[in-house]
């Protein structure tokens, strides 16, 4: 029997998503380390199935200004993936790459936006790579689109794009440790239900 929505995912399904999150975070830490030219460690990712409103609260509330980097998924898995960067993470990256000392998400220069966009591209590739590695499925992604806005406005995009599929999202929270700094990254995944069923079936997980 196929699942019809994200609410039907059981503990076994969540464990699979956690493993995808683990591999994705490992890939992301490696890529981030290379990008920043410094050692980056990670803690075990936290994977949750959330209402979009609950995700907004975890991201500092609907009015908190963040950077959202979105890519549409195609190939064997359709849906969207969005990487959310908060101010502390943006500052860590931009200080390391560009020597920037003061960072305000809503006042980024073109050069700073370009650097953050490249970061998002790398992070999204880390997670899609983890899905492909585990499932041997072929994933394609669009060129990521970057936007700076309040959390509520940014999360309206997956709500509109995938609202007919589900009002819930797969929320992956990662903590990365670089030197004495601990920064949190958040990856949001909203696959189509058909794609999620194909993924679980490919991994041999009973539906």
From TrEMBL:
Residues 12-49 form the CheC-like protein domain. InterPro entries: CheC, CheC-like_sf, CheZ_family_phosphatases. Pfam families: CheC. Keywords: Chemotaxis, Hydrolase. This is Chemotaxis protein CheC.
């Amino acid at each position: 029997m196929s699942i019809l929505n994200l609410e039907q995912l059981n503990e076994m399904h969540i464990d699979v998503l956690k493993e995808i999150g683990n591999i994705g975070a490992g890939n992301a830490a490696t890529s981030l380390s290379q990008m920043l030219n410094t050692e980056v460690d990670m803690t075990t990712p936290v994977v949750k199935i959330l209402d979009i409103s609950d995700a907004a609260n975890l991201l500092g509330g609907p009015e908190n200004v963040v950077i959202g980097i979105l890519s549409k998924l195609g190939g064997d898995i359709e849906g969207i993936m969005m990487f959310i960067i908060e101010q502390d993470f943006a500052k860590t990256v931009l200080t390391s790459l560009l020597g920037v000392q003061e960072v305000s998400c809503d006042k980024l220069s073109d050069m700073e936006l370009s650097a953050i966009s490249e970061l998002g591209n790398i992070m999204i590739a880390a997670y899609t790579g983890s899905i492909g590695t585990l499932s041997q499925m072929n994933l394609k992604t669009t060129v990521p689109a970057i936007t700076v806005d309040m959390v509520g406005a940014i999360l309206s995009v997956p709500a509109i794009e995938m609202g007919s599929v589900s009002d819930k999202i797969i929320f992956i929270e990662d903590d990365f440790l670089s030197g004495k700094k601990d920064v949190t990254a958040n990856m949001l995944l909203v696959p189509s239900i058909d794609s999620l069923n194909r993924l679980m079936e490919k991994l041999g997980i009973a539906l």
